[in-house]
Each structure stands twice: as structure tokens, then as C-alpha cells.
Amino acid sequence: MPGTVLLLAASPVGKGCLVDAASVLPVLAAVPPAVLSGTDTANVVELADPLEPQAVLTRLRAAAAAPGPLTVFVTGQLQLDRRQRLPHLALARTTPASVRYTALPWHWIREELRLRAPGTTTLFVDLRADPETWEWLRANPLDSGRNNAVYGRIGPPPARRTVAVPSYMKAVATILRSGHRPPPEQLHQHASARLGAEGYADLVLTAPDAAGRTAAPPPYRPGTTRPPTQDGPAHADPYGVVSAGVGDLPAVVSTGVGDPHRVVTAGVGDPYAVVSAGVGDLPAVVSTGVGDPHRVVTAGVGDPYAVVSAGVGDPSAVVPAGVGDPHAAISAAVAADRHADADALAAYHEQAAAHAHGPASEEALHWTEVRADLAMFAGDSVRSCRTWLAVATARLSAGQPADAAGVETSVDRAHHQWGQIGDPVRARELGPALAELRSRVPGRRQGALDHVRRQLRQLQTQG
Question: pTM for this one?
Fold first, then answer.
């Protein structure tokens, strides 16, 4: 029975483009259809930078209805629509404001493939996520359907003002051009191995976990209902706040029980930094005290009017923070290029979680990881690398095994960010720490430690 192959490569035109998706199509098109499909004969449908989501749906629906094996190759970028916050595959006309109308909802792919017989559908994906979607992926797997085998990667946003290359999909195509099609899992492993340090930051999609990813499960996110403890069942305390107690400032923990006027000093290098939990109609307020004592962030505890005010150069600039979820405020600040304010808000939650649950707790480490990603979004590879190294060290010191997903992910992303550092001096400073961690956490990609050592030797010859 003949197979069917769908080649879909899409990315926005203009400055919103994160990946040169269409560049992979000539390489894939040079592969014989039977090799692409793994069948004796195959029909191939190619979609290059399509304009309309309905047109893509029509081709997808026809491919899904065809008998025989179906192989789908998808290259592009993921963005969230602003209304439902669902992932979409951006098309040529997609902008952040028009995702809902001009991009292909990812769940359309899942639904069109849902009724196919198990074992007959394979997806290879090479996707980039914008900063907002990258944060969304921390708590939400990319659901491609339970009956489908999914292989590939989702990469973080590329460096600012750069367009990424779909290296994973090009590696898949190059392997297939030899005329030999290994089993999908082996094909995925061979392609991933060719990425080197570039792939260490990726979320890896691999069957049989067709609906999810192989990264660590998302840690508990402070600000929601707390996990059960030995002292009692899970409960919500949106008013509990903590101070660091730095210098002469006392460390204070206020649960907010029976105290409508609770105010706690934050103690982050600024005796004027304060935290107010917010009571009644009063919004919760955080003054970060980072470089600007007037910078104010409303935390949005039950306050739909929560905002982030940068106070840096433009004290009137305001970004809506969303309702009840600090991640929404952080995403909004990043989208507006207000990276210092996004980091300040994450730092506040990191500190509060560390004092409430311990610096090595999942609650605190989650916010440290957020700050590592925020540094990446801001183009600060040095800070991002250093932060991921700290996360990995903290997890190992807490007794987590070297092959734990959270440990491997931290070292992989530190490795990736280290490779992005353009200053040889700063790279040399962080290299030995990365090499030491790599000796303990080799990861799942062969040659990682050798790569660090080889790069360090090259750095010694640079100024």
C-alpha cells in the first residue's frame, strides 16, 4: 500500500520570523518519496510558507484521510494566541496580534490525525518557540495525539535579531538522502547527534511519549494552591509573603492571618524594598529596589488590574500583568522588551519561594530556571549559562541523580548557552565549571564532555 508524506514548512515574513523554515524543503524534496515514507511508493504533498490556515487544514485533512502510512514533516515556529493561549504554527502572515486568525492551531493537527489507526502516523518536527510559548511549554506538553509517533525538537528563541536554521530537520533530510531510511527512533537519534551543542537547550519530542516531551515535569508554581504537607491538606494562601533578612533587616515571614496590614521588607540589597500583600481593594505591590527604588510591580493577588511599571527611563510605561499568575506578567514584560522588569519580578518570586520552601526546593528552583530563560531572552548568555550551572549544582547537591531529567536539562542548557558566549574571556571563566559538571552529568547525547574540552582548548588560543 502506498504511503503519504506531508512536508509543511512555515514561518512569518518580516521581523517576526524566528526560523528559516522553508530552507529545509529543497533538502527534503531531494529525498525519494519512498524513502521519506518508508514504503515502496508514496505521494508527497509540499506546503512552503502557506498563507491561509484553512488551506493548510484542507491539505492536512486530505493527507489524514489517505490509506496507508502517513509521515508528516513540520518545520516552523510556535506562538500563542492572546485569547485562549493555545499554541499555533505561525504562517507567512502571522503577527503576535493576529495569531488567532492567521496561524494554524496546533490542535487542528491533533484532531485531524486523531481517527487514524494507531501505528500508521509518524511526525517529525523541528520547531522554534517565541519567549511566551517557551514559558508556556514549561507547564504544557505539545499534544500531538496519543496514536501518533512524534520525533523532533522544540528549540528556544534564537538570539535577538537572528533567524535560526532548522538544523534538526536538515539533519534528518541529509540522512535520508543516502537512500536508507532507518526506523524512526534511530533516525531521530542520528539527527539529534549531529546537532552538537546547539541541541542541548531543546525540548526533545520522542515516541512513545507522543503527546509530551522528555524534559522534567513542571515544578510546582508558587502563587497557586500549595502541595499537601505533613501538617495538613493542600490549601491556598495568596497572602503569605517572605522577606530575605539581609544586613540589619530582620528576616520576616508573614502568613497574613488576621493581619490586614502586613508589610514585609524584601531585603534585596535595598532597605527600601517592600512587599505588601494587598488587602481588600488595595493591589498587592512589590518594590524591587533594583537600581530604581521607584520601580513598582503589582503582584496581582486577586486583582484584575495588576500591572507592571518599569520605572526605567519611562516611569509611565505599564504592561498588563494578567490575573493571578505572575508568569503572565513576566511574559508580557519580555514581549515588550522590558527584560530587567521581567527578571526583577521573577527574582522576587524566587526569593519568596526560597525562604518559604528552601533554596533547593522545586518551588525556588523553578523561578531560578525562569530567570535563566529570561537571561537568554535578553541576550545575556553569560548570565543564563551561570544560572543554569547553579540550578544543576543545586539539584545534585540536593541528592538528585545525575541522570534525573531536571539535572540533565539544566546542564544541557548551560552547555548550549556557553556555546553562545561571544567573549572568549567570559567563556573561559565558565568553561571549567561546565566541564566539571559534564564529567558528572554526561547527558544523553554522546560526546558532550569532549565537546566542552575541545572548545576550552580552542579558547586558550584566543585573546
Answer: 0.61
